[in-house]
Amino acid sequence: MPPGEATDLMGEELFERADEYDAMLAEGLSLSGEDKGWFIEGRLRWLSGRLPTEARPRRILDFACGVGDTAAALARTFPGAEVVGFDLAEAAVERARERHGAPGITFVSGTDLPAGTFDLCYVNGAFHHIPSAEQPRVLAGLRAVLAPGGWLALFENNPWNPGARLVMRRIPFDRDAVMLSIPRARRLVHEAGFAEVRPTTTGFWFPRALAPLRPTERALSRLPGGAQYLVLARA
User: Fold this and answer.
1) Is the pTM above the cut of 0.85?
2) Interval 205-222: pLDDT, tens
3) Residue 102, Cβ neighbours under 10 Å: how many?
4) Could you give the CA distance from residue 176 to residue 129 in angstroms, rounded to a whole number?
5) What are phi and psi for residue 115, nearest 5 degrees?
6) Measured in whole angstroms, how far is the alpha carbon of residue 184 from the centre of its chain?
């Protein structure tokens, strides 16, 4: 995928004010009682539990990586894998390099991504910033960078969850975003040419105040009510 062609897909480059990003995100997430790191680790446990046991990604793309926290967590979750973080915002990429640059972790912006070279593409919270007319092209591009049999892990905020909507209204860079429904996300992934789209699961049902209920989330994961959902698809 040539990211240089997609410079305007997310409207303003959301993370050019990289110094303010964490504070803005924390303002919204405070409603859940948890911080950004808790959600990152939760998504990666969720993903690890959904990937087939034989899936051992050696090259991972963190698309729309922001300031790089998830890229670093991906490297910890998949030891020995090469992780490439990509974002359109150069200021965010520079901050990611400062925070998380290490052997096996690189960050790039405004450069083509080589086709057919990634075993896993992780995307969280990017598509609600991409105009709906452009979403099919971006997904086709992500399909193109995956190796045969590679996996797309598409996480999005669930518009059917009132808490997710409330959190987004409190975050300046999410306030005017158009949330992507589960049926539309699945349809777009199918149309992008993925060979297999696994059943969608949802998570993050309960805030910290209701933490004693969290052990039930596994049983609830096939219901469409969690604050985020995961569309997992194989190229």
Assistant:
1) yes
2) 999 999 999 999 999 999
3) 12
4) 9
5) -70, 145
6) 16
Distance of CA 133 to the CA centre of its chain: 19
Q: Which long-range contacts (CB under 8 A, 24 or more apart) does 28-31 make?
A: 28/167, 28/168, 28/169, 28/170, 28/171, 28/174, 29/167, 31/163, 31/166, 31/167, 31/170, 31/207
Could you read off the pLDDT of 82-128 as tens digits, one per residue? 999 999 988 889 999 999 999 999 999 987 899 999 999 999 999 99
Both structure tokens of 212: 């004693």
181-191: b (≥16 Cβ within 10 Å) or e: ebeebbebbee
3-state secondary structure at position 123: strand
Average pLDDT of the residues in 19-31 = 80
What residues contact residue 107 under an 8 Å CB cut-off, 6+ apart?
65, 68, 71, 84, 85, 86, 87, 93, 96, 97, 100, 101
Q: In Å, how far from its chain's centre is CA 123?
A: 3
Note the pLDDT of residue 222: 97
CA 225 to chain centre: 18
Those residues whose C-beta lies under 8 Å from the C-beta of residue 194, and which sit 6 or more positions away, are 143, 152, 233, 234, 235
Which amino acid belongs to residue 21? Y
Burial class for 219, CB neighbours closer than 10 Å (0-12, 13-18, 19+): exposed
